Amino acid sequence: MTERTLAIIKPDAVERRLAGTIIQRIEDEAFQIRAMRRVHLSKAQAEGFYAVHRERPFFAGLTTFMSSGPAIVLVLEAPDAIRKWRTLMGATDPAKADAGTMRKEFAQSIERNATHGSDAPDTALYEIGYFFAGVELV
Ligand code: GDP
């Protein structure tokens, strides 16, 4: 079933000029890029995006990092896109990520881990809607 997921090329990867390489990998893996935008989140916008994590000990650091510089947000479409993109990203902690995954290749730490991907259909809907209006996705 064709599915959509929200991907983010996080500020660490944009700062290190890895966006082009990551977008190339997305295209090589046959995702359709349905929408894409560069954003520099405010702290409050990062907190809203990661609201489900607000009780976690890393919330303050994560939202400071995510608002520290520009990021690129994308809507990716493919059969089984949510699982497929998370497999390509690899584990949250790059030390545990499989060889060949984005986080193994590009992440610097468990926090500065290069990419984001929605983890389920309901979160994908929320996250896509956080950045893109329906009219941008036709
Ligand atoms: P994801 O779905 O793989 O992105 O992981 P989570 O939803 O669990 O966490 C969201 C983001 O918070 C991760 O991608 C990391 O950037 C950050 N993060 C997760 N766990 C930790 C942690 O233990 N320490 C720190 N500093 N950051 C973390």
Short recap of the structure:
By secondary structure, this protein is an alpha+beta fold. It contains seven helices and four strands, in the order E-H-H-E-H-H-E-H-H-E-H.
How would the blueprint of this fold be written?
Layout lengths: L1 E8 L1 H5 L3 H10 L3 E8 L3 H7 L9 H8 L4 E9 L1 H9 L12 H5 L8 E3 L3 H11 L7
Antiparallel strand pairs: 1-3, 1-4, 2-3
Helix pairs in contact: 3-4
The structure holds guanosine-5'-diphosphate (GDP).
The site of guanosine-5'-diphosphate has 9 residues, from α4.
Q: What is the overall shape?
A: globular
Query: What is the string of SSEs from the N terminus onward?
Result: EHHEHHEHHEH
Strand order across the largest sheet: 2-3-1-4
- Radius of gyration computed on alpha carbons: 14 Å
Would you write up a description of this structure?
The chain has 138 residues and is of the alpha+beta class. Strands 2-3-1-4 form a 4-stranded antiparallel sheet, sandwiched between helices. The radius of gyration is 14 Å and the shape is globular. 40% of the residues lie in helices and 20% in strands. Helix 3 (43-49) crosses helix 4 (59-66). The relative contact order is 0.25. It contains 7 helices and 4 strands. The two termini are 18 Å apart. The mean pLDDT is 97. Guanosine-5'-diphosphate (GDP) binds at residues 58, 61-62, 92, 110-111, 113, 116, 119. Residues 58, 61-62, 92, 110-111, 113, 116, 119 line the site of guanosine-5'-diphosphate.
Question: Key features?
Answer:
7 helices, 40% helix, 4 strands
